[in-house]
Design goal:
2 domains; elongated
Length: 325
């Protein structure tokens, strides 16, 4: 197939040290797409591989003109690789998959159909039967459970690299850091609400070793908290920090008033001054001072956040799906 500016399908594949699997994967994709008469391109993004992956890609390009490839100078991570692939994808449907052959290209036609005919914005693969050790499957179950609650998206497998998107979706989001796990969440926040799921085949690893360790799940939870905060309060930080500031300041102020009023009341009813514990010697007084200071700091953080948000160049960049003039 020729690499044209307007393809039906773009297959985006981030890779890192996958020289052994690339020839089989590209040939498999070509076989499937040719059989189903799909005009396609394969976008390979080499995330700073240290093996001869780039040399293999250049050889494959001679055989498969549909290949488009980009190479990073060093390893930046899967999110950066996907973001580059998304920016250059020309297909009306964009499908992502991993380069390790654990995702089956045979799933491409069904995913393509769910986007084009069933009109989904995003379709996420679900590796219902996995060939991974419990050290990977158990944390994944916990991770997916928490992500479902926070995002409100009923998917069973956010981590699955095999996903399909309308082109408009990938052009409307930016994937950075470790946010590739939350692309459906980013899509939903951009207004693409029709998100589906498909059970896909998970194949045992044929070449190499896994590039991910347990630390990715810790980073994943931290990224989920960051993403949830940014999507809710990124354009209105004072709503978050101001609310906390009011709560802290009010609790500290009311506590201080209570302590002073209590002492004045005891003096009023005739309690001897030397038998009344001084306000400044009570632990509650110092807790109230901490609350007052924290409240003021929250306000300052909110004001600074508002200044940054208002000076941001994309503060009014909203996605417009249609217009009439």
């Amino acid at each position: 197939m020729s690499n044209k500016s307007n393809n039906e399908l773009s297959v985006v594949i981030p890779l890192y040290n996958e020289a052994e699997s690339l020839p089989e994967l590209v040939e498999w994709i070509d076989r499937v797409c040719t059989h189903h008469k799909l005009d396609y391109e394969v976008i390979l993004v080499d995330d700073g591989s240290k093996d001869n992956s780039w040399e293999v890609i250049k050889e494959l390009k001679l055989k498969f003109p549909s290949i488009v490839a980009y190479k990073f100078q060093r390893n930046y991570g899967k999110s950066a690789a996907l973001n580059v692939g998304f920016r250059h994808a020309s297909g009306s449907v964009v499908i992502t998959m991993d380069a390790d052959l654990q995702d089956s290209p045979d799933e491409i036609p069904a995913l393509f159909k769910m986007i084009t005919e069933d009109k989904y914005d995003v379709v996420s693969g679900w590796k219902k039967k996995r060939y991974d050790p419990i050290s990977k499957t158990l944390p994944s179950v916990i991770f997916n459970f928490v992500t479902r609650i926070v995002s409100g998206i009923k998917l069973n497998d956010f981590n699955c690299g095999l996903k399909a998107y309308r082109n408009e979706v990938v052009k409307s989001i930016e994937v950075y850091g470790e946010m590739h796990r939350y692309i459906p969440f980013l899509a939903k926040a951009s207004g693409f609400s029709k998100i589906g799921e498909k059970v896909v085949e998970h194949r045992a690893r044929k070449y190499g070793v896994s590039k991910f360790g347990l630390e990715r799940f810790i980073n994943g939870f931290l990224d989920l908290l960051s993403l949830s905060f940014i999507l809710r309060f990124g354009r209105k930080p004072m709503h978050f920090f101001g609310s906390l500031g009011v709560l802290c300041f009010a609790s500290g102020f009311l506590t201080t008033v209570y302590l002073i009023a209590e002492k004045l009341y005891k003096l009023h009813i005739g309690v001897q001054p030397n038998s009344i514990r001084p306000v400044v010697e009570q632990p509650l007084f110092y807790l109230s001072l901490v609350a007052l200071v924290a409240g003021l700091q929250m306000f300052l953080a909110g004001f600074l956040g508002e200044l940054i948000a208002r000076s941001s160049s994309d503060r009014n960049s909203f996605l417009i799906s249609e217009s009439i003039s």
